[in-house]
């Protein structure tokens, strides 16, 4: 018998409630089962009285809150979201979703504009190594105009304000490049330092819009500036990890990626990240969520693109993967990072939310990691069969085999979820059940490898 959508929704809500209780150390599995039976009795009675399943679940949890402290905490934390599910008009929800998607497209489109604009001077024969002073004078003009456009679009500023903002940027550009200054002069340094300060207040006018004349509007901009700095630092740290793995991965197949990193990734990424960080700050204010989902939404596509690019390069060039110990450790580190990103994404996701673009990117990430892991297994198993086993080779082989099983099963559950044949909770359940496997393998390496390999 096929479950109806209402039944599936009810089961997902009960599963979320059950997961919430199990996370609390003070309550045992037996107690959860007893409370669940009581909850289901309440829901059955309410649905029998004519309430819809979602309404019955909400009322039942509220009633249980009078009897049980944990259920009361669950109700307090989730009642607003559950109530919105009951009363929000679907068309309004669809409109909000469209507005969110439009804002994402605009923000990332302008981030791409900022990233590409960094390289525009090279079209006129300028080189950043030779003409660094020109880049320093104009660095903010690659980033702040797109950021201002973003706020002009988001705040729907009228034409008069837009013309004033344009005039401010033109005037700043003129004076930033008007005087002939040597790169080691005091005035050059002062110009480079003070142009961003002046232009940042111009951005503030666009950010606050009609509220710029109010104390609250200017205070909001100050708060935005601080949060933007925090998000930018987090993105930069994640970008540093991403860059390190990119260089190491391609070095494994004999390709030097330093030129791409220095000439494109770092300068363009630094410019585009300002727009992305600004969008993250705005998204945090409009949606009640923690850091996990927004950062996952950013780095999941990046690592997916990295793995796909690596696999395509491997296929096109036909190069073999280096089996040097340091390279294999770095490669396994990347796969572990991908797994951590996947777990982070799962922990941040609402199990009841429908499949979306982030889930598609997660599938691309999982499948790419699965193929990369298969390549690593082949690279490790070949020398074992030829030269024999060693502690490092067997340990790497074991880790990659464990990752292969985890990623393979995760891909199956994700595909089932995207096709509408399974719930996202199956992905959660698999990952949490598989965690002890890593601990068992680590214990085997520590306890058995020294005597098995002669304490070498």
Your description of this structure?
The protein has 456 residues and is mainly α. It folds into 3 domains: 5-87; 97-285, no CATH class; 289-456, no CATH class. The protein contains 15 helices and no strands. The chain has helices at 5-22, 29-48, 53-64, 69-87, 90-117, 132-155, 159-178, 186-208, 215-252, 258-286, 291-317, 325-348, 357-387, 391-418, 425-452. Helix 3 runs antiparallel to helix 4 (69-87) and helix 6 (132-155) packs parallel to helix 8 (186-208). The longest helix is centred in the middle third of the chain and has 38 residues, at 215-252. The protein is flat. Mean pLDDT is 78; it is low at 1-5 and 79-93.
Can you tag this structure with a few keywords?
single chain, 456 residues, flat, disordered N terminus
Ends distance: 59 Å
Question: How many domains would you count in the coordinates?
Answer: 3
Quaternary state of this entry equals single chain
- Run of helices and strands: HHHHHHHHHHHHHHH
Strand content: under 5%
Low-confidence spans: pLDDT under 50, at least 5 residues?
A: 1-5, 79-93
Q: Can you summarize the main beta sheet?
A: none
Rg calc: 27 Å
The class by helix and strand makeup works out as mainly alpha
**Coarse morphology:** flat
């Amino acid at each position: 018998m096929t479950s109806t959508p209402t039944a599936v929704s009810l089961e997902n809500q009960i599963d979320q409630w059950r997961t919430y209780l199990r996370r609390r150390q003070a309550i045992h599995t037996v107690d959860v089962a007893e409370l669940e039976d009581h909850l289901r009795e309440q829901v059955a009675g309410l649905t029998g009285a004519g309430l819809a399943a979602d309404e019955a679940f909400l009322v039942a949890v509220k009633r249980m809150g009078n009897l049980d402290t944990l259920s009361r905490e669950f109700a307090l934390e989730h009642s607003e979201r559950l109530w919105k599910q009951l009363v929000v008009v679907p068309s309004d929800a669809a409109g909000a979703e469209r507005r969110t998607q439009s804002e994402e497209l605009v923000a990332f489109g302008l981030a791409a504009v900022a990233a590409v604009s960094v390289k525009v001077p090279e079209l006129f024969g300028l080189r950043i190594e030779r003409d660094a002073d020109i880049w320093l004078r104009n660095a903010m003009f690659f980033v702040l105009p797109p950021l201002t456009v973003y706020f002009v679009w988001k705040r729907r500023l009228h034409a008069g304000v837009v013309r004033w903002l344009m005039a401010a940027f033109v005037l700043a550009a003129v004076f930033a490049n008007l005087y002939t200054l040597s790169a080691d002069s005091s005035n050059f340094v002062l110009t480079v330092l003070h142009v961003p300060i002046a232009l940042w207040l111009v951005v503030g006018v666009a950010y606050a819009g009609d509220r710029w004349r109010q104390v609250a509007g200017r205070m909001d901009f100050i708060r935005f500036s601080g949060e933007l700095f925090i998000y930018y630092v987090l993105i930069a740290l994640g970008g540093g990890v991403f860059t390190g793995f990119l260089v190491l991965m391609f070095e494994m197949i004999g390709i030097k990626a330093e030129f791409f990193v220095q000439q494109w990734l770092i300068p363009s990424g630094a410019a585009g990240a300002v727009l992305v960080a600004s969008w993250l700050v705005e998204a945090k204010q409009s949606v009640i969520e923690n850091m996990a989902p927004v950062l996952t939404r950013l780095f999941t596509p990046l690592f997916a693109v990295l793995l796909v690019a690596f696999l395509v390069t491997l296929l096109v060039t036909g190069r073999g993967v280096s089996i040097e110990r340091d390279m294999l450790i770095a490669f396994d580190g990347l796969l572990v990072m991908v797994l951590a990103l996947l777990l982070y994404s799962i922990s941040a996701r609402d199990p009841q939310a429908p499949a979306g673009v982030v889930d598609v990117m997660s599938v691309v990430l999982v499948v790419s990691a699965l193929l990369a892991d298969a390549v690593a297994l082949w690279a490790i198993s070949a020398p074992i069969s030829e030269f024999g086993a060693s502690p490092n080779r067997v340990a790497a082989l074991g880790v990659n085999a464990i990752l292969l099983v985890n990623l393979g099963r995760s891909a199956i559950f994700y595909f089932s979820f995207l096709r509408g044949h399974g719930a996202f909770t199956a992905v959660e359940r698999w990952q949490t059940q598989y965690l002890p496997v890593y601990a068992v393998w680590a214990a085997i390496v520590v306890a058995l490898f020294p005597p098995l390999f002669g304490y070498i």
